[in-house]
Every structure is written in C-alpha cells, then in structure tokens.
Backbone:
C-alpha cells in the first residue's frame, strides 16, 4: 500500500513474509545442518530415497504381472463365452455337466494318484489332501451341496467352472481330441486317466488296456462290465481301479502284478462272489472299499497290507481265527492294520465272544477317526432276548476305539 512503511526484521532476525511473519526460504536454508553433520544427513537421505524407489519399483512389477495374468484370464474367458454362444464340438468337449457333484473322497484320491500331493514330514497324504479340500471350500471355489452338512459333496460355481475350463483347454489328452467311446480312446497311447460313464463291452476294455502302460486311473463305475481281462496285469503304473456298480463276478489273479495300486474300489458289486489271493501282495494298497459288496468264497489275507488307511466292507466271520471259515475275515486280523483312518465292520453281531472284540486292538490305532459298525439285520422291530442284548453290549464295549475317534456310526444293530 502506498504510504505504508516496508516490513523489516529486527536487527538479529531474518526477513519476514508479509502474510504470517514466517521465515522465508532464504532464512530456512540457514537452518540446515552445517559442518561435518551435513554430508552424513544427505547420504542418509539418499539411501532412504533409493530404498523407497527400489521397493516401489518391485511392487509395480508385481502389480503389472498380476494385471497381465488377469488380462489373459479375461481374454480366455471371453473366448470361451463366444464358443458357448455358438455350439460346437470343441465347446461341447470342454463343458462339464451342469451341477456336477464333486465327492471329497473321490477327488482327493485322484490328487494322490496323479502325483499332485508332495509328501510332508509327520503328515500323511490324506491329511494334506483334506487340508487342500477345506481350503477350496473356504475360498468358495467349491460350494457345498444343499444338505451336505459335512461339506463332502460339493459343486463348482458356473463362473469358476468357465474359468477353469478356459485355463485347462490346452491340457486335454490326444491334442484336444474328443472320444465318445472307450474303443475310440483305445487309439490314444499316452493318456493316464480313463473315467468311463457309458456302457462298455468286455472286448472294448481288453482293446483299451493293451499297450496303455502309462495308465494311472481306470474308473469303470456303472459301465455294466462283466469281465476283467487278464491283460490288466500290463498296467504296471495303475494306481486307482474303480469297478463299483459293475456286474463283475470275480477279479483275475493277475491283479497281483499291479504293484503300484493304491486304491481298489468295489462298491455295490452284487455279483462279486470272491476276491483273488493276489490282493494280499498289493503292499502299497491304501484303500480297499467293499461297501455294499459281500464276497464269500475266497478272501485274501489282509494282515500284510500295512499301508491300508481305508477299509470298508470288512465282513466278520463266525468262528475264531484258528478255525477255517470263508464267511468273512477274522476280527483279529485288524490288529495288524495300525495305519487305518476309516474302518467299516459288517455283521459285527457275528462275534460271539466279547474277548474277540478286544483282539481287534482298535485302541492301538492312533489315526482311526471314522468307525462304522453294521449288524446283520435291518428289522427294527426284531425282538432281542435279554441275554443276547447283554452279549452284544459287551462286544461293543470291548471294541474300545481310540480317543482320536471323530465319527462313530452304528446301524442295523439292535442290542
């Protein structure tokens, strides 16, 4: 303003700004460190700036990589959606059945036999696969089926399924060749997994097996197959054999050659009347599932199957171990199987002496978490005499399951 005297500092102070009387930049520069301290501070500042710049650059690189991966996934998904709009054999090949149910014990077995699970110290492969399965459920990649409170039956959301199909489009065997019958699949040599859901002729199975030495998984559930050829012994790398709900009456003795077999599933094979002795030589067997199947003529010795973790359909015989009886297995054989995690005992009421129940030594099985006991009758109105009820109660009491047991199921047992 005209006529106003200029602002000035005191004799000892720096020039002041007109607004707030704060020191100017010139004055601020006079407050910086001087002498020997100033180079040290400047060096430290340069190091901090360099570290911050390095961390920022690394973060930007990771962010850029994640963005590229997301862009690729979106592009693949868009391509897949275009294929879905226009039906084609290629699109049909990739589609999974809508609402396809994934069962925990099935998918975890597949992970093991395909070699996806690395061994961990003090942790069995089953524990690892169970943990992975729970993680998929908790992250909503798998959705529990309605009514499946234990989450052992799940489905995949449509969006997740579309992305997975897109990401795996280059991983189909036979260079994206679709096969509608097992006979057509016989022309493919190097595939490792066969899951057949169509009716199958015995001759077609023999043709498919020949020369397929890399096969790891053979699932013929519900195919109506009646005969398993001797040539199955050629599948030296086979790890999982599922013949559930088929019409087979026996298995060939040559099954003993499947030295890498880990899972043998024979559920609800109503015509199966015997099991080959060669099963006792499958020392890597982890699962023998005979639920709903009652072979009676020939039964293999199970005491040498030390790696068995799952045994279902274990039918108890009538007599003690020292007497020959082909109606089932001696309950005493269970004492040798200390790796068991899941056990189903059928016709437990055949045990006449409660001391036999003690011989099963269930309390000595540190990994047993699931125990399923089945009686011989389904008649809920069956009258059980008092003396018989006491005997059945003593049998159950003397089984003595271990403290680690998580699930106990008793059916058709009216003691």
Residues:
């Amino acid at each position: 303003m005209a006529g106003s005297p200029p602002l000035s500092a005191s004799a000892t102070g720096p020039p002041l700004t007109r607004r707030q009387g704060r020191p100017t930049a010139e004055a601020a520069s006079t407050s910086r460190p001087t002498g020997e301290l100033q180079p040290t501070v400047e060096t430290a500042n340069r190091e901090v700036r360099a570290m911050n710049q390095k961390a920022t650059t690394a973060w930007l690189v990771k962010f850029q990589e994640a963005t590229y991966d997301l862009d690729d996934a979106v592009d693949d998904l868009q391509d897949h959606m275009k294929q879905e709009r226009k039906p084609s054999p290629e699109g049909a090949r990739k589609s999974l059945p809508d609402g396809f149910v994934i069962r925990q014990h099935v998918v975890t077995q597949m992970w093991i036999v395909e070699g996806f699970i690395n061994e961990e110290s003090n942790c069995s492969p089953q524990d690892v696969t169970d943990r992975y399965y729970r993680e998929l459920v908790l992250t909503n990649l798998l959705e529990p089926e309605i009514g499946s409170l234990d989450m052992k039956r799940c489905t995949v959301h449509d969006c997740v399924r579309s992305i997975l199909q897109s990401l795996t489009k280059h991983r189909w065997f036979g260079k994206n060749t679709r096969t509608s019958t097992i006979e057509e699949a016989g022309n493919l040599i190097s595939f490792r997994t066969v899951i057949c859901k169509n009716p199958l002729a015995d001759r077609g199975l023999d043709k498919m097996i020949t020369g397929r030495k890399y096969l790891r998984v053979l699932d013929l559930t519900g195919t109506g197959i009646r005969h398993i050829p001797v040539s199955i012994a050629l599948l030296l790398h086979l790890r999982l054999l599922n013949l559930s709900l088929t019409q087979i009456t026996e298995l060939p003795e040559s099954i003993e050659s499947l030295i890498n077999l880990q899972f043998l599933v024979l559920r609800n094979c109503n015509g199966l009347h015997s099991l080959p002795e060669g099963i006792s030589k499958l020392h890597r067997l982890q699962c023998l599932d005979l639920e709903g199947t009652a072979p009676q003529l020939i039964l293999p010795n199970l005491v040498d199957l030390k790696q068995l973790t799952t045994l279902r359909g274990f039918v108890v015989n009538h007599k003690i171990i020292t007497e020959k009886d082909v109606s089932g297995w001696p309950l005493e054989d269970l004492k040798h199987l200390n790796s068991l995690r899941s056990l189903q005992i059928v016709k437990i009421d055949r045990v006449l002496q409660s001391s036999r129940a003690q011989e099963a030594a269930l309390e000595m099985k540190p990994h047993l978490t699931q125990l399923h006991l089945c009686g011989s009758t389904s008649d809920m109105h069956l009258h059980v005499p008092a003396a018989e009820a006491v005997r059945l109660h003593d049998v159950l009491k003397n089984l003595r399951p271990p403290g680690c047991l998580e699930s106990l199921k008793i059916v058709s047992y009216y003691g």
In short: The radius of gyration is 35 Å. The chain is about 30% helix and 10% strand. The first strand starts at residue 102 and ends at 103. The CA atoms of residues 9 and 15 lie 5 Å apart.
